[in-house]
Amino acid sequence: MLATVAEDDVIIEHPNRDKRGANATRVFVVVLLLASAAVLAIATVGGWSKIQGAKPVQVAYILVYVLLAFYIARWRSGLLPVAASFAIILLIFCAISGPEWFSRDKAGFADPLLDESIVGALTILLVPLQLLLIIVAARGFSQKWSVEVERRLDGRPAYVAQSR
Questions:
Q1: Using an 8 Å Cβ cutoff, are 29 and 133 in contact?
Q2: What is the DSSP code (8-state) at residue 13?
Q3: Residue 110: is its pLDDT beyond 70?
Q4: How far is C-alpha 121 from the geometric centre of its chain's CA atoms?
Q5: Which positions ≥6 away from 5 have C-beta within 8 Å?
Q6: CA separation (Å) from 126 to 43, 55, 79, 89, 138?
Q7: Is the dihedral of CA 130, 59, 145, 24 positive or negative?
Q8: Which pTM does this prediction carry?
Q9: How far apart are CA 40 and CA 57, in angstroms?
Q10: Are β-strands 149-152 and 3-5 bridged in parallel, bridged antiparallel, or unpaired?
């Protein structure tokens, strides 16, 4: 059981974090965030010369996803809705811009670093990744990782109400 010792020999336990489902969800969210950041990074680098105006947004998304993965790996359940909201926004951008990469495969368009079809496929691949991230992050939030239970080392109740 995960526990930390607070003042006066009080142990703070998080009982919902000990469940296998919660651990699996946490790992799955972290893997999805890191996979999304990796696919987005490859697509960004591959299409860097032809991306117009979205370069800072894409770099920020990569950094935010890595940061979210770091903190969620440390049981920060409050960031799960933040990860889901970022995933919704990225899903919308990818669903709109993904097919446009395939339409660049004609004469007269300059070629990006990676082939247009590869960048388009990577962008389309982000759509199901983001859908899965939204679902798993919502599941993790419903598991209530932040619930705390306090108890003393000597077995007495942590706080006793005093009568007057």
A1: yes
A2: E
A3: no
A4: 21
A5: 11, 12, 153
A6: 10, 17, 20, 11, 18
A7: positive
A8: 0.78
A9: 11
A10: unpaired
How far apart (Å, rounded) are the C-alpha atoms in residues 23 and 4?
18
Return the amino acid letter for 37: A
H or E segment and range at residue 11: strand 10-13
- Comparing C-alpha atoms, which of 100, 103, 94, 101 is closest to residue 127? 94
90-126 core/surface letters (b: 16 or more CB in 10 A; e: else):
bbebbeebbeebeebeeeeeeebebebebbbbbbbbb
How many helices (H) and strands (E) the chain has is answered by: 4, 3
The tokens of 29 are what? 């969210």
- Exposed, middle or buried by CB within 10 Å (0-12, 13-18, 19+), for 128? exposed
Instruction: Find out whether 141 and 79 touch, Cβ atoms under 8 Å.
Output: no
Nearest to 119 by CA among 50, 34, 36: 50
Going by C-alpha positions, the residue among 145, 149, 147, 144 that lies closest to residue 12 is: 149
Residue 161: the pLDDT is 47
pLDDT digits (tens, 9 = 90+) for 54-76: 788 899 999 999 999 999 998 88
Strand order in the sheet with 10-13: 3-5, 10-13, 149-152
